[in-house]
Recover the amino acids of this structure.
């Protein structure tokens, strides 16, 4: 009896940091934000319960258009990242051996030793009107005047894909590594072409990794702030900018809270949809990540 | 080996060599496999048999030599275009597909509509005794059932040749014994040419029409199981195929195929063989050794020795004795018939052993 109580106490003590972490830093602020999002300002410093903040979102086109744009662009970025990461992961998992494999993974990780802000500034140096790419284009005669490559959707997508690549490659490489070489050989042996083997054997096997990587990249992209703001400028129009503006510029916390909740809802809905469409469960996906 | 490169053969391997760096994994191997034959390549691990098989399947390319299937050279033909299908050691079933989809995969690859392929697969599963298993997950099958799916997946394509790479290795002993018989039966009902790779001599002996014994990249001997067992061509074949007693010594006299071999202790034994050199090895099968409680019973045998039982290895019908014999540095192993008068013999009992001259094969060492 004593030992059971003691083991319970031990378990509780071991879990305490995690529970405190989750409770104080994740659950509590979100409850606070949820409550805040339902409070309307009726007079200076007087707030009442109401759905006004959410109504504001639907009635002001800028808000919901930015919201829809963020969702669409994030899905696009996730898809592009997947397409780019797949061959790299395939190479790391199935071709590279020993040291080469470690070096390749390290190369993917290397950009993350620099802060996201500095990395994005690096892209700005490359892409701006007086930047490296513009200069190079003029030097080889492909352009006769400085080219502005910043502040458009292409630049935003480029920056976001670059930031998400590692988080796609690692789960993908993990998933592909567990594919038995003989299974791939059997696919060829029974008459499959490269495309058939990829489509019917490699991709289905890598599905948990594909979904895990996509969820991570999608969530990172939807919630990104620095990259769209710096590379997109005024044309960035990312939803996190609206949240930032409400909280910091306009000091309208309830409106910002409502936007925050909507963004959370959006990413949850899209992740759920993605899992349903690919027939994966959250459990198996998390294991892969 | 006389029938190699015969135009009617299903498979002809002509002088195939495969080098990895300076090491020849397969060294100038030539053989032919006739239609409908069950041909085994038997050898210890690392002898090059897997490399040889992977070259036939198209996963490795020979450094030199030719691989012909029904007379057609396969050099430069990729694995997915060869009329050869392989049963992998790990079976390599597709875990992402159902049993039916696994069997239909190859047909779909050939461009057959999915419904027709599924129907063909279902009929093939029926023939291997897996009727109604089409919808199951591969992971829900037992070891023997998975084995049959792996074979059905190949046979449904009606290949010229089925390659089997130690497919029984992962099974437990009882199931392995059962699958040996089943494989042999499957092969004869489908009348497809099988090339089977194994390091297990019992698998090769039970199933094969012909066996090639491979060692260090080369074929030591090709022949029927009986030929290999009863008239091994090399010391390696004699010691690798079946249980045997190995004696080492010097030839003191030889006449007309019969040789006298003197052991280091001075004891002289008589055997058959051609050994041009003085140093020689000889092999005697445990079942060729006659046991008797007294000397006179062995009167007709040229080799008669006296010994003492040092161990009784009871294994039902395969029981044997280890006998410390005067003049021999290793105990002599002899089969102990469980129906005979010696069935109850104990360790330490005196015993007489003897064997005929033609039961002992002598080779140059």
């Amino acid at each position: 009896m004593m030992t059971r109580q003691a083991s319970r106490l031990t378990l509780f003590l071991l879990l305490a940091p995690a529970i405190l972490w989750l409770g104080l830093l994740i659950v509590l602020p979100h409850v606070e934000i949820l409550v805040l999002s339902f409070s309307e300002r009726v007079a200076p410093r007087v707030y009442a319960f109401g759905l006004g903040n959410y109504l504001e979102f639907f009635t002001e086109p800028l808000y919901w258009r930015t919201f829809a744009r963020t969702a669409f662009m994030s899905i696009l970025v996730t898809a592009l990242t997947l397409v780019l990461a797949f061959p790299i992961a395939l190479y790391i998992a199935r071709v590279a051996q020993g040291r080469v494999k470690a070096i390749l993974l390290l190369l993917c990780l290397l950009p993350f030793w620099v802060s996201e802000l500095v990395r994005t500034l690096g892209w700005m140096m490359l892409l701006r009107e007086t930047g490296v790419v513009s200069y190079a284009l003029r030097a080889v005669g492909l352009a006769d005047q400085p080219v502005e490559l910043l502040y458009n959707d292409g630049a935003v997508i480029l920056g976001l894909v670059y930031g998400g690549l590692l988080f796609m490659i690692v789960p993908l490489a993990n998933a592909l590594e567990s594919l038995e070489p003989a299974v791939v050989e059997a696919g060829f042996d029974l008459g499959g072409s490269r495309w058939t083997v990829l489509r019917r054997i490699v991709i289905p096997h890598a599905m948990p990794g594909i979904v895990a990587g996509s969820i991570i990249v999608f969530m990172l992209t939807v919630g990104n702030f620095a990259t769209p703001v710096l590379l997109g400028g005024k044309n960035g129009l990312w939803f996190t900018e609206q949240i930032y503006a409400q909280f910091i510029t306009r000091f309208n916390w309830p409106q910002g809270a409502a936007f925050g909740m909507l963004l959370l809802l959006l990413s949850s809905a899209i992740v759920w949809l993605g899992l349903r469409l690919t027939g994966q469960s959250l459990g198996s996906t998390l294991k892969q990540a | 080996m006389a029938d190699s490169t015969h135009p009617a053969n299903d498979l002809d391997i002509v002088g195939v060599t495969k080098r990895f760096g300076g090491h020849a994994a397969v060294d100038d191997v030539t053989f032919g496999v006739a239609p409908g034959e069950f041909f085994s390549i038997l050898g210890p691990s690392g002898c090059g048999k897997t490399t040889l098989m992977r070259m036939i399947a198209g996963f490795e390319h020979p450094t030199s030599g030719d691989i012909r299937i029904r007379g057609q050279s396969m050099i430069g033909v990729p694995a997915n275009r060869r009329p050869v299908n392989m049963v992998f050691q790990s079976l390599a079933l597709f875990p992402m597909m159902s049993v039916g989809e696994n069997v239909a995969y190859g047909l779909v690859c050939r461009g057959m509509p999915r419904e027709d392929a599924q129907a063909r697969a279902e009929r093939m599963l029926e023939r291997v005794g897996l009727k109604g298993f089409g919808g199951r997950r591969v992971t829900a099958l037992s070891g023997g059932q998975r084995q049959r799916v792996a074979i059905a997946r190949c046979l449904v394509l009606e290949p010229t040749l089925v390659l089997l790479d130690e497919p029984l290795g992962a099974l437990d002993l009882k199931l392995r014994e059962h699958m040996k018989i089943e494989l042999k039966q499957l092969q004869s009902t489908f009348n497809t040419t099988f090339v089977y790779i194994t390091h297990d001599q019992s698998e090769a002996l039970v199933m094969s029409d012909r066996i090639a014994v491979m060692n260090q990249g080369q074929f030591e001997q090709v022949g029927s199981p009986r030929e290999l067992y009863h008239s091994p061509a090399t010391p390696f074949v004699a010691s690798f195929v079946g249980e045997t007693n190995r004696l080492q010594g010097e030839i003191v006299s030889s006449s007309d195929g019969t040789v006298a071999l003197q052991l280091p202790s001075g004891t002289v034994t008589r055997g058959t063989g051609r050994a041009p050199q003085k140093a020689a090895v000889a092999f005697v099968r445990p079942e060729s050794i006659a046991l008797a409680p007294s000397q006179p019973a062995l009167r007709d045998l040229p080799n008669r020795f006296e010994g003492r039982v040092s161990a009784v290895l009871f294994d039902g019908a395969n029981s044997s004795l280890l006998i410390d014999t005067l003049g021999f540095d290793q105990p002599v192993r002899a089969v102990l018939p469980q129906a005979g008068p010696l069935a109850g013999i104990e360790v330490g009992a005196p015993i007489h052993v003897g064997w005929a001259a033609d039961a002992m094969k002598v080779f140059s060492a």
User: Anything to note?
Assistant: Chain A touches chain B at residues 180, 182-183, 185-193, 196, 200-201, 204-205 (CB under 8 Å). Chain A has a mean pLDDT of 87. The radius of gyration of chain A is 24 Å.
